[in-house]
């Protein structure tokens, strides 16, 4: 049974790596399996909805060959990418709209911070719930700097960086604002993409404010690297 599952996964893995449809004979030759075995697994994968068939041109006279492609697994980043591509207006307007989306996103979290929590810990906990990973956190002269090594929105940043900046800034600002009484301070948020177009590392600087609220564009500035 374990061997059957392994063959199942190998075939699916090869299809996911392929840039186009692959027929059973090619899969069999690549994986050193009998073509009948490959077809058996392909039928199971198709039944599970993990692969689809495509007609391939015939190599010689006869009926067309049948190719197989892996079905892409949808994710929330795909949905965000589609929405980002359809947000109209200027880059500034798109970023402001994304700020509101990020704020609403953070509002869906059910955070239960400890009584002694600080701003950096609070933000790190929130970001981890959303799929971000923190590489480092420092605190100097009241200014917290967090460096993220993983961002679930990295692919979207390649085409819509202003939307990703807005989402990141909005969700962090909302988390801080919602816990201002606990933190005994209000914070403004700067999102600073790294020199590599902000696709991986993002610097978040949390500076205590003297008072008042933070709007989408006034105090929560975005400084691009």
TrEMBL record:
It comes from the Bacteria. Residues 10-52 form the HTH arsR-type domain. GO terms for molecular function: DNA-binding transcription factor activity. It holds the Pfam family HTH_5. SUPFAM superfamilies: Winged helix' DNA-binding domain. InterPro entries: HTH_ArsR_DNA-bd_dom, WH-like_DNA-bd_sf, WH_DNA-bd_sf. This is Transcriptional regulator. The lineage of its organism: Bacteria, Bacillati, Actinomycetota, Actinomycetes, Mycobacteriales.
